[in-house]
UniProtKB/TrEMBL annotation:
PANTHER family named among the record's database cross-references: QUINONE OXIDOREDUCTASE-LIKE PROTEIN 2 (PTHR43677:SF4), SHORT-CHAIN DEHYDROGENASE/REDUCTASE (PTHR43677)
GO molecular function per UniProt: oxidoreductase activity
Protein name: Zinc-binding dehydrogenase
Residue ranges annotated for the Enoyl reductase (ER) domain, each copy included: 20-351
InterPro entries listed in its UniProt record: ADH-like_C, ADH-like_N, ER, GroES-like_sf, NAD(P)-bd_dom_sf, Zn-ADH-like_protein
Source species taxonomy: Bacteria, Bacillati, Actinomycetota, Actinomycetes, Mycobacteriales
Pfam families: ADH_N, ADH_zinc_N
Length: 357
């Protein structure tokens, strides 16, 4: 399809009218969504997940994405490709999950998605499951399999294991044959982790969780740690890393400002003889160009397609399952962001737009 012929389209959206608390600054508006450019597609959005980083963006605390209002938040989208720019025409009519261009714009009934991130969903995967599979399991695969080189029989520590990304790492870790120790912040969440398959689950608010993890590993420490929390959780995790262990630094849920923090000391890493592995997942068309312009090492779209096939097969055979904590009505979006910010949620929160039923 020739992108020049495609016209803007009206969409219903949640718009951040100012920087601040999502419940106060998000407004439902009718907006105009532009035509897709080269390497982009325009998606009739049916569902998407809420993310912690969405809250950081809306509050103006995410220095990686310093957006100025008004803007439409939202880092994911599931739906059918309605039109495409140059180089992405083959995706028209396909139902996909992907990341909106520049990682915002997903809270709308139509969204512009970076075609490099677009992953097709088979008919047997519902919209909600497609949304819930996307980032937790692609991030989990990249972290555990590619960066952490997790092997069957190894011990995996998963922090915030009842949350959106942690629950995916827990489920995937078990599928990859690991012994999983999960941490969570309440007895209810600890039980939730056990239901997901954790071999052991620890309430980090009750006593010294590091000591508990060391006891569970007979003093050896863990082989791999999935850490999307950061801050004190990261430095405490250094105390329970085993010899040749791999600490996966996958996020900063404790405080996004930690992304630029100076709280890490080389001493425990060097003397502990374990690796600290950065984890940032964005599939791109040209990794070398990204490296030369931004200085980042991001995997190629081809790697994402390979991972997607593996994850879909694991989902089809029952080796993994999506973890949907709640399916959220369009009108309830701000309230659910508040619950997420207050750490009152489990699994993924999937919003259904109801716009293209």
């Amino acid at each position: 399809m020739n992108d020049v012929a495609v016209k803007p389209i009206s969409a219903e959206a949640w718009v951040a009218t100012a920087l601040g608390d999502p419940a106060k600054v998000l407004e439902r508006q009718t907006v105009e969504v532009r035509a897709p450019g080269p390497g982009e597609v325009r998606v009739a959005v049916r569902a998407f997940c809420l993310n912690f980083n969405d809250i950081d963006v809306i509050q103006g605390r995410y220095t990686t994405m310093p957006l100025q209002p008004p803007f439409i938040p939202g880092m994911e989208a599931v739906g059918v490709v309605e039109s495409a720019g140059l180089g992405a025409e083959h995706l028209v009519g396909r139902r996909i999950v992907g990341i909106p261009s520049m990682a915002f714009g997903g809270y709308a009934s139509y969204a512009i998605v970076d075609a490099a991130t677009a992953l097709e969903l088979p008919a047997w995967v519902g919209d909600a499951d497609g949304a819930a599979l996307h980032y937790p399991f692609h991030l989990g695969w990249f972290a555990l399999h590619e960066r952490g080189r997790l092997k069957p029989g190894e011990t995996l520590l998963v922090h915030a294991a009842a949350g959106g990304t942690g629950s995916g790492a827990l489920v995937l870790g078990k599928a990859l044959g690991a012994r999983v120790i999960a941490t969570a912040g309440s007895d209810e969440k600890v039980e939730f982790c056990r239901e997901l398959g954790a071999d052991h689950a620890v309430n980090y608010r009750n006593g010294d969780w590091v000591e508990q993890v060391m006891d569970l590993t007979y003093g050896r420490g863990v082989d791999v740690a999935f850490d999307a929390v950061g801050g004190s959780v990261t430095t405490d995790t250094f105390r329970c890393m085993g010899l040749h262990g791999r600490h996966l630094m996958a996020g900063f849920a404790e405080d996004i400002a930690l992304e630029d923090g100076d709280y890490l000391s080389p001493r425990p890493i060097a003397y502990g003889n374990f690796d600290v592995c950065g984890v940032c997942l964005v599939y791109v068309t040209d990794p070398l160009a990204v490296r030369r312009t931004l200085g980042f090492n991001w995997p190629a779209r081809s790697e994402g397609l390979d991972a997607h096939v593996k994850l879909l097969e694991m989902l089809r055979t029952g080796a993994i399952r999506t973890v949907i904590g709640a399916e959220v009505a369009w009108s309830d979006l701000p309230a659910q962001l508040e619950r997420m910010q207050a750490r009152q949620t489990t699994g993924r929160l999937v919003v259904t737009t109801g716009a293209h039923d």
